[in-house]
Design the sequence.
């Protein structure tokens, strides 16, 4: 699609895109190329000496079983966050779409977790589930006799970060489903109702297929969120532990680069992650637009 | 406290100063949270109030690794703090960073401040000197790991509260009784790697790594998967399984579990006393860490932990700033300042003079536990295995050990597997460090 | 409503109420904790009804921070957060709307190259290129400054797209009429396009304000000076390690303060927020 009316000027368009481009070049392209450059280098912590080591950082990375573990951890984490988050928000959205009275109030009460920073969400959940003083811990230990100590138990730590991440992102999913539901023509549903289809049947045969593009879109967004947006949650709660059971890829980049001062290794991981993001973005744009078009 | 703060602030504004002379400000980044942070601020405030030329500004930068990271980043960016509190495991990394730090002996010589490295306790300085005996960083808060028991819990379980377990065998026997008496958390620890790998090795005269624990060269490799190490970690995993050992986390999380009364036995830093003294609503005692009586030569001596102060450099730094740092160091070396810090925090006295002064003051008669740390550190003359450790990038190395310990304590790996993996992974870090700092 | 099934309606309300309660619970506990004494929190289980320390705790953190960890006052942090969130939101909107205008209404060499260059930034989240970006900021001497906090986060592919999409839907006749009247491109932009974009701008503002307010990793790295901390960083700095040694009452008060402004923006500007969210991301 192109505009019929266009302006011509030798300098104005350049001046208009200049600020955006300048920032992009200085803060995106330059650092990204630096990341690629660093990934072929070995540097000491204080950056006083460095040497070119070719692909060594990458070889070391893929030989490291912990890095491969980190991929598994990231996959499990994303699947749980996306799966649980989408299922719960779909349920809430379908219910909110159904009720007539109070629908606006419910929406208001369900959307504000979006405003909570991931790191703050992490702190909240770390407090609720704190091994010795947490109120939820108290219930888990006292009422269910559960040995709750996510500082040591990997599965519990994973559960904790998944719960916090789902909570933090539920409003986002909810709003998209609600918008998707509200754009489904009432006539379609009424016609099905006249044909005698009950609410469950109507949901699975009409509503759900029509929502599938939204669901797919949310799947990709949730995966991207689990990959990158949850950094604050992890840092405020488990910091990747215990052992490495919640060390997702992006946290490892940060940990190795910032905390362990291994610039080369961390940059190599950045390069790998960039490839992952590019793949995800391509999927998001290609697949969504072409395949899931009703 | 309030008044002192006010005085410091007024002094800072210059209300008290006579002739206008430019005050030199020194940035001091530290990792002392809680009661220790308060004590540290008191030190700085007292110094600021005592003179007008130098103003020490403290800021809390998170945990030890976080402060160090922040300082490294700041150095790369050209504005590091003047003083950085670095924990003992960061020593080798700081030492290798030649252009980034100014060794203390050099600073004191250049600024002509009186300074005698020999006045410090050898158990402390050994850690922070180079092979020629030059002191590279300024020892500040040196600690060692101690064994604490909750006497009330012991009484309740029918144990003699005056007889803290001395061996791990006795610990296990006590654990059975405590558990039977309904004690929720029997034993916990802070700093798992420091206690159960590093100090375990020294206390039993076992090497942590080859080449005298790394003092002999950067090509040192870890030896923490020896049968004795494996047996010890196995025992802990077994206790964890029986619900007699509660894992608290990688840093000082165990401290609060003990001071709140949740756990009956605890191994943690001497520095934990400040917090325990304030929070504990029960009788407690401080003791030597337990040993295995079937390992020959044990107990040897424990090694220090805690942190020292490194002087960081930067292109823009002026001689006056270095001079100010040196003056502050001279102040910190004074026996009375040392004694105040020692008695308030539980960290060990680091000069002979401070130790003698505290002794004379009768402090140890009232609080014999406070002296135990020094006694434990100097229990026997240090061997190559027990004088400390110096591994490159041990910040990361210790994280690896802790990750593997967590895998063992949670039952994911056997002790042997975990320690073998720890050695393999931590050795890779040493190889990498050797290459990067050739 | 298609049909009237009271049970289903009841079920729907029940599920929604349960959802609301479960979602609100953590924040309720946070609020309660922020009104208690530390000792009350330490005695597990903590009370679930608000205590009487509301004023004490909030005035403590606003003016003096925590006593054990960072002593930076949260009041100053709130100012920093506000500056950061506003600068990012306004900056993003400003530079995106003019670049979208250039790309849609001008033909010039390299137009598509520029467009793709902006597009590709979508693929480089700050978490991925964190260390080199930090280095750039350090080299430019932008550590501990508002410029360092905001400028690198101002470039926005999504906002540029949104405006581009929107400009495409603006009827060509408007531009033609403007040209007949003898108005130049900037006149057309200011007098016609900008007023038409009001809704999109408002929507974007809400989203980007929250984005800016909630930044974590970036300010964590580049603010080493307490006076530059944002509220979210301030919370992190009050946590001194073990869970029982923290001053949870003060941390929770700070958490409430960190959540309140963006939550108010979302709720009060709900219409714009929903519109902005659903449209920008699609």
Sequence:
């Amino acid at each position: 699609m192109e505009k019929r009316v266009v302006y011509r000027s030798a300098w104005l368009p350049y001046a208009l895109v200049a600020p955006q481009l300048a920032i992009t070049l200085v803060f995106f392209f330059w650092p990204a190329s630096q990341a690629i450059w660093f990934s072929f280098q070995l540097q000491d912590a204080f950056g006083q000496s460095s040497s070119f080591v070719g692909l060594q950082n990458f070889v070391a990375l893929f030989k490291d079983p912990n890095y491969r573990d980190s991929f598994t951890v990231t996959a499990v984490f994303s699947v749980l966050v996306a799966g649980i988050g989408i299922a719960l928000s779909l349920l809430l959205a379908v219910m909110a779409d159904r009720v007539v009275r109070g629908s606006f109030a419910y929406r208001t009460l369900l959307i504000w977790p979006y405003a909570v920073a991931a790191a703050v969400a992490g702190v909240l959940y770390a407090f609720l589930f704190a091994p010795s003083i947490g109120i939820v811990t108290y219930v888990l230990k006292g009422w269910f006799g559960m040995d709750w100590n996510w500082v040591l138990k990997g599965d519990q730590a994973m559960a904790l970060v998944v719960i916090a991440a789902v909570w933090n992102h539920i409003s986002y999913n909810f709003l998209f489903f609600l918008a998707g539901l509200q754009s489904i023509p009432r006539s379609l549903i009424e016609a099905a109702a006249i044909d005698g289809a009950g609410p469950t049947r109507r949901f699975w045969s009409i509503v759900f297929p029509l929502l599938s593009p939204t669901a797919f879109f949310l799947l990709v967004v949730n995966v991207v969120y689990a990959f990158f947006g949850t950094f604050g949650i992890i840092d405020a709660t488990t910091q990747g532990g215990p052992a490495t059971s919640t060390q997702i890829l992006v946290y490892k980049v940060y940990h190795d680069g910032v905390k362990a001062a291994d610039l080369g290794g961390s940059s190599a991981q950045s390069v790998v992650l960039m490839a992952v993001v590019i793949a995800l973005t391509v999927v998001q744009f290609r697949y969504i637009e072409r395949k899931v078009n009703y | 406290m309030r008044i002192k703060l006010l005085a410091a602030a007024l002094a800072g504004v210059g209300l008290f100063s006579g002739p206008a002379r430019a005050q030199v400000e020194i940035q001091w980044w530290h990792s002392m949270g809680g009661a220790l942070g308060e004590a540290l601020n008191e030190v700085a405030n007292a110094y600021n109030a005592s003179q007008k030329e130098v103003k020490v500004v403290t800021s809390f930068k998170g945990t030890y690794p976080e402060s160090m990271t922040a300082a490294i980043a700041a150095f790369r960016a050209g504005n590091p703090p003047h003083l950085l509190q670095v924990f003992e495991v960061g020593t080798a990394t700081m030492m290798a960073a030649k252009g980034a730090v100014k060794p203390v002996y050099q600073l004191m010589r250049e600024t002509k401040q009186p300074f005698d490295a020999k006045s410090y306790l050898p158990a402390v300085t050994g850690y922070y000197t180079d092979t020629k005996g030059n002191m590279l960083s300024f020892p500040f808060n040196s600690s060692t790991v101690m064994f604490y028991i909750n006497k009330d819990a012991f009484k309740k379980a029918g144990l003699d509260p005056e007889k803290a377990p001395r061996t791990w065998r006795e610990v296990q026997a006590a654990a059975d009784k405590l558990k039977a008496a309904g004690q929720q958390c029997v034993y916990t620890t802070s700093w798992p790697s420091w206690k159960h790998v590093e100090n375990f090795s020294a206390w039993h005269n076992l090497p942590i790594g080859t080449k005298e624990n790394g003092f002999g060269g950067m090509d040192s490799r870890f030896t923490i998967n020896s049968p004795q190490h494996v047996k010890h970690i196995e025992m802990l995993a077994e206790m964890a399984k029986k619900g007699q050992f509660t894992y608290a986390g990688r840093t000082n999380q165990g401290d609060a579990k003990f001071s709140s009364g949740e756990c009956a036995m605890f191994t943690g830093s001497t520095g934990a006393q400040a917090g325990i003294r304030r929070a504990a609503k029960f009788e407690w005692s401080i003791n030597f860490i337990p040993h295995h009586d079937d390992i020959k030569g044990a107990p040897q001596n424990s090694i220090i932990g805690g942190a020292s102060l490194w002087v960081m450099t930067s292109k823009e730094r002026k001689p006056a700033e270095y001079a100010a740092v040196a003056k502050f160091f001279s102040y910190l070396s004074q026996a009375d300042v040392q004694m105040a810090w020692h008695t308030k925090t539980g960290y060990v006295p680091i000069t002979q003079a401070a130790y003698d002064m505290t002794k004379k003051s009768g402090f140890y008669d009232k609080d014999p536990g406070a002296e135990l740390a020094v006694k434990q550190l100097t229990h026997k003359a240090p061997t190559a295995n027990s004088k400390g450790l110096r591994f490159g990038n041990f910040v990361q190395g210790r994280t690896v050990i802790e990750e593997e310990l967590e895998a063992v304590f949670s039952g994911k790996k056997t002790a042997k597997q975990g320690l073998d993996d720890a050695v393999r992974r931590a050795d890779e870090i040493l190889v990498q460090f050797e290459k990067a700092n050739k | 409503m298609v049909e009237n099934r009271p049970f289903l309606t009841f079920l729907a309300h029940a599920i929604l109420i349960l959802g609301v309660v479960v979602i609100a619970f953590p924040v309720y506990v946070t609020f309660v904790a922020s009104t208690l004494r530390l000792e009350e929190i330490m005695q597990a289980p903590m009370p679930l009804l608000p205590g009487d320390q509301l004023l004490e705790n909030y005035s403590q953190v606003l003016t003096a921070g925590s006593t054990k960890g960072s002593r930076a006052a949260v009041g100053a942090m709130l100012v920093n957060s506000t500056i950061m969130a506003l600068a990012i939101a306004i900056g993003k909107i400003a530079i995106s709307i003019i670049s979208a205008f250039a790309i849609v209404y001008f033909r010039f060499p390299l137009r598509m190259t520029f467009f793709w260059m902006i597009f590709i930034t979508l693929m480089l989240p700050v978490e991925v290129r964190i260390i080199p970006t930090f280095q750039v900021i350090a080299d430019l001497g932008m550590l501990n400054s508002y410029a360092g906090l905001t400028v690198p986060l101002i470039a926005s592919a999504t906002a540029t797209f949104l405006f581009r999409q929107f400009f495409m839907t603006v009827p060509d006749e408007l531009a033609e009429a403007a040209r007949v009247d003898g108005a130049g491109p900037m006149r057309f932009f200011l007098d016609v396009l900008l007023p038409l974009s009001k809704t999109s701008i408002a929507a974007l503002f809400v989203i980007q304000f929250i984005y800016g307010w909630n930044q974590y990793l970036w300010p964590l790295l580049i603010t080493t000076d307490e006076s530059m901390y944002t509220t979210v960083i301030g919370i992190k700095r009050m946590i001194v390690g073990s869970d029982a040694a923290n001053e949870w009452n003060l941390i929770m008060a700070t958490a409430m303060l960190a959540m309140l402004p963006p939550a108010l923006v979302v709720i009060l500007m709900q219409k714009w927020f929903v519109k902005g969210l659903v449209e920008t991301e699609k």
Q: What stands out?
A: Residues 159 and 174 of chain B are 7 Å apart (CA to CA). Chain B touches chain C through 30 residues (CB under 8 Å).
